[in-house]
Design goal:
205 residues; alpha/beta; Rossmann fold; Arc Repressor Mutant, subunit A; 2 domains; five-stranded parallel beta sheet; 10 helices; 53% helix; CheY-like_superfamily; two-component regulatory system; Tscrpt_reg_LuxR_C; DNA binding; Two component transcriptional regulator, LuxR family
């Protein structure tokens, strides 16, 4: 029986592993489960290309340590980080370390499946396109000075409240600027905005 691609799941919570095994198996993926990052790393060299989904907070090697080790080994596997904490600075760090995306628990099944399908369509070592970089620069240039300040705060991991305090304006106004930034940058969520900022050189790898 053919499948849509390989998915490797790392989570120390047995219930979450079982849930993802059922969900992703039903969606047509070939799923392999790991209860610790160390077990995955031991098997890594023998695994075929696929999408890795890892929890961020685990005993032993956590999700961030795992990303650092994969980056050091130049692993081609796209990684999606799961967090149950809504920790934006942690998500920023995960994207900077090479994670393709992050998703907060509880998440919508369709969103995770869509992320995985996108990840599996990526060819390992995909070259950066100058045209895409120019397009991102054009989007950034369309931002007003205040919108750019808000974007810089967001990709630095600051909350709306902290950005408001820094620029002495109300959090409600920040929400308006934030919505404008997401629209002009054509980013559907914060992780997309962070990736665009990385591509434009606003954040350093």
């Amino acid at each position: 029986m053919s499948h849509k691609g390989n998915v490797y799941v790392i989570d120390d919570d047995p219930a979450m592993r079982d849930s993802l095994d059922f969900l992703l198996g039903s969606a047509g993926f070939k799923v392999m489960l790991f209860d610790a990052a160390a077990d995955f790393l031991n098997a890594h060299a023998g695994l075929r290309f696929g999408c890795l989904i890892s929890d961020v907070r685990m005993p032993g090697i956590d999700g961030m340590d795992l990303l650092r080790r994969l980056k050091a080994n130049a692993s081609p596997l796209p990684v999606i980080i799961m967090t149950g904490h809504g920790d934006i600075p942690l998500a920023v760090e995960a994207i900077k370390l090479g994670a393709l995306d992050f998703i907060e628990k509880p998440f919508e099944d369709e969103r995770l499946i869509g992320m995985i399908e996108t990840a599996l369509q990526q060819s390992p070592g995909h070259a950066k396109s100058d045209a895409i970089s120019a397009e991102i620069a054009s989007r950034i240039a369309s931002l007003s000075q205040r919108e750019r300040q808000v974007m810089d705060g967001l990709v630095a991991g600051l909350s709306n409240k902290l950005i408001a305090r820094e620029h002495n304006i109300s959090p409600r106004t920040i929400e308006v600027y934030r919505a404008n930034v997401m629209t002009k940058m054509q980013a559907h969520n914060l992780s997309e905005l962070i990736r665009l900022a990385l591509r434009a050189g606003i954040l350093n790898d």
